[in-house]
Write a structure and sequence with these properties.
Layout (H helix, E strand, L loop, with lengths): L13 H10 L1 E5 L2 E7 L8 E6 L8 H18 L1 H6 L4 E7 L7 H20 L1
Parallel strand pairs: 3-4
Antiparallel strand pairs: 1-2, 2-4
Helix pairs in contact: 2-4
Length: 124
């Protein structure tokens, strides 16, 4: 498995994002909130993912972009946790709900916990 996060793996469809927030289920592991939905999508990959950081908590675009970059990197390195266990196609959006930036190591650990919790929820 390649540890890349290409264009086909990212959630870009406005229709899917609207459907995700309207019908999706949510889980939280501070400082992350994941909204996920089992739905057919156009990608060959089992999951499509999007990342968001609210402007309300981080006024400067530089800060928001840095957090999104760290979130993408931690997900990219750990996506095999999800890909090995998931058999149906999913879309999910990971939002940063914290009010201050965390270190890369903390985000890595929290992302791992979030993905494991996602696997638990989808297996039920």
């Amino acid at each position: 498995m390649k540890f890349t996060l290409g264009k086909k793996e990212r959630l870009k469809s406005k229709k899917l994002i609207e459907q995700l927030y309207a019908e999706g289920k949510s889980i939280k592991v501070f400082p992350f909130r994941m909204v996920f939905l089992q739905v057919q999508h156009t990608s060959d990959f089992p999951c499509q993912v999007g990342f968001s950081v609210p402007k309300r908590n981080f006024k400067l675009a530089v800060s928001r972009n840095r957090i999104k970059r760290l979130m993408r990197e931690t997900y990219r390195l750990q996506k095999n946790i999800v890909y090995d266990k998931v058999d149906k196609p999913y879309v999910f959006m990971i939002s940063y709900i914290g009010r201050e930036e965390m270190s890369y190591q903390e985000l890595y650990f929290k992302t791992k916990k979030l993905l494991e919790l996602f696997i638990e929820k989808t297996k039920k």
